[in-house]
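Bumping my old thread because nobody answered last time. Still need a sequence for this structure:
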């Protein structure tokens, strides 16, 4: 796969996870704080969701480990 896309998806996924952590621990939504409660925040949430679906493909990559020496 494309390494740049992998890194971008992982970064967006981490940002989304950190945002959920902030919501859970402190009831603070960083995305809404930065982008407001409008359409731009919804786009960010959609990007996080798309990246999560893409990151599911990483499970397939972890199964392709070679033990040759």
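Sorry it took so long. Here it is:
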């Amino acid at each position: 796969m494309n390494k740049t896309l992998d890194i971008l998806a992982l970064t967006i996924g981490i940002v989304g996870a950190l945002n959920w952590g902030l919501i859970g621990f402190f009831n603070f939504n960083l995305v809404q704080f930065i982008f407001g409660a409008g359409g731009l925040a919804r786009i960010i949430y959609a990007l996080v969701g798309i990246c999560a679906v893409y990151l599911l493909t990483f499970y397939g990559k972890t199964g392709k480990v070679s033990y040759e020496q």
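Helices lie at 3-26, 30-35, 39-55, 58-62. Let me know if any region looks off to you.
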